[in-house]
Amino acid sequence: MAEAHQAVAFQFTVTPEGLDFHLSREAVRQLYLAAISSWKKRLVRAKNSFLTGVYPASPSSWMVVVMATAGSCYCQVDPSLGLIGRIQHCLPHSDMLTPQARMVVSTVLFSTGAWLAAVLLFRRVLRILLSYHGWMFEPHGHMSRSTRLWVALMKIMSIRKPLLYSFQSSLPKLPVPPVKATITRYLESVRPLLDDDKYEEMAALAKEFQEKTAPRLQRYLLLKSWWTTNYVSDWWEEYVYLRGRSPLMVNSNYYAMDFLYVTPTHIQAARAANAVHSILLYRRRLDRGEIPPMMALGVVPMCSYQSERMFNTTRIPGKETDTLLHLPDSKHLAVYHKGRYYKVWLYYGGKILPPADLELQFQRILDDPSAPQPGEERLAALTAGERVPWAEARTRFFSRSPNKTSLEAIERAAFFLTLDEEEHGQEPGTPGCMDAYAKSLLHGRCYDRWFDKSFTLVVYKNGKVGANAEHSWADAPIVGHLWEFMLATDKFQLGYTEGGHCKGDPNRQLAPPQRLQWDIPPEGIAAIEGSLRVARALADDVDFCCFPFTTFGKGLIKRCRTSPDAFIQISLQLAHFRDKGSFCLTYEASMTRLFREGRTETVRSCTAEATAFVRSMADPRHSRSERQKLFKAAAEKHQQLYRLAMTGSGIDRHLFCLYLMSRYLGTQSPFLARV
């Protein structure tokens, strides 16, 4: 209990003489250091907000403008055309302000105003430059003069090293496509799937919609696009993700895998410690804005908005719609092992715990012989089942302590860690090992992942790692950036000792992990078991085949002057046709992060060109050269659709918003109902 008492700043006892206070110097010192760390973080965020707000200018440029203006005035050259004199005349008269001081103040005020005007002008120019997307539609390896000039101007405007969010307010808004273009592309996408009669029926409905209903809906949608940052993203997050009542597990959440052929250490606690420490380093860089924004061609920034909710975020269930709980900071981690939940502090003395200390804490959890409390082991099954029962159980059984306190410890954690009892990974010569690895990360045992957390880090008994991520707060590339950083930092920067442990000596005076306490009644346990049955039925229905493909890669495809993405999508069409003997609507996600708060758009890869090529592969009368021409046409069509989607000219998000607008306005549309 000595370590536990150190966590209390002061204690008191009641004596006949009164209250007897006992201060803990170490606890007070930790509180002081934590406060210093918190204020440093606030100052860094304030500084980054200012630097981001004036980008591409810098604070030093303000000083240059002030000095240049002052120098001009000293040389009796007035660059303000009389404005400095007017400002000086408007300043309040005071004995403390001498004529020279009034001149200095008015010069600084004019210089500041001129500098701010220049900042606004530069940011406007930057937004205009970022609205140019002609470079995407030019042949690979060829660049027009206009694009060369655009690249040169972009390099000049972004010559100062940007922070993560430097370009955010300069990114253009996602445009609302014309209704006519959307309907034309929609009819083109369904033509390979419909016979003549059904196509004519759909075309007639589309024409009626375009002429009668669409103009009104489009006007309201344009109005929404003017007063919101992105006319799609808020509705997409709410209606596609948060209002979904089906289980998140399998249906929405996705996973990430470890290195296939390398395992830095087989010691579970050590691998977990290095992984957690690496993730915390990434979070610190994220908070400071030190991570450079993703850039296309090295000059085109992508929206970084989704990174804001990577940590300290949990999806809270509701009866009609869920909500996202995001905290500015969190200093602890929620850990699950053998049916028990723990709270592990991540900071000591205002600093991130080093890997050796984290390994000590995780090893204490692994060595804990205590048994789960009633209902504790399968508690997370509530997050794996239907959302409404989880919302009802949360309100009924987790609104009072100790359950409320323990649930808040999980939901307010930086992220969730599972110390898994199983062993998984790529094992050459073992059939089905990758299938089991993927299924474990996708759904596990249905109660050993907290599917509501922004992501769950899974560390297996043999040292392999993986992750399960919730989808509403961001798309997979955002987690991919974190995952690549974690793997690289773990392997190449932190490293391990020869024995496989983390480097450094642990601080054995650290308070041990805090075991979370639960008092779940029999009715609550019944609700947990009900969600578990639903989740297990869903998990058992998953047929997963995962294997490494080593015959060739994207290098060979590129040497054939073909887009690897187009190659894969056309291959999927061919494989599906050979298996089913028919075609179907196919969804490929394309990103729209060239626009502010952009997420994804749909690329309908089952095109007329793709189906023509697939049919030629089944027809022996077609020669090799004819099939090559058809394949080239299909690949070019797919690339065209992908570029249109990336530049805001996709059809599905536009139709989605038109449909929602019709529901809000109470407008009936047979066309939108069929779409």
UniProtKB/TrEMBL annotation:
InterPro entries with a match to the protein in the record: Carn_acyl_trans (IPR000542), CAT-like_dom_sf (IPR023213), Cho/carn_acyl_trans (IPR039551), Cho/carn_acyl_trans_2 (IPR042231), CPT_N (IPR032476)
Membrane topology: Multi-pass membrane protein
GO biological process: carnitine metabolic process; fatty acid beta-oxidation; long-chain fatty acid transport
Localization, UniProt: Mitochondrion outer membrane
Catalytic activity line of the entry: (R)-carnitine + hexadecanoyl-CoA = O-hexadecanoyl-(R)-carnitine + CoA
Major localization listed first in the record, in broad terms: mitochondrion
Annotated TM spans: 103-122
Family: Belongs to the carnitine/choline acetyltransferase family.
Task of the protein: Catalyzes the transfer of the acyl group of long-chain fatty acid-CoA conjugates onto carnitine, an essential step for the mitochondrial uptake of long-chain fatty acids and their subsequent beta-oxidation in the mitochondrion.
Name by which UniProt lists this protein: Carnitine O-palmitoyltransferase 1, muscle isoform
Species assigned in the record: Xiphorhynchus elegans (elegant woodcreeper)
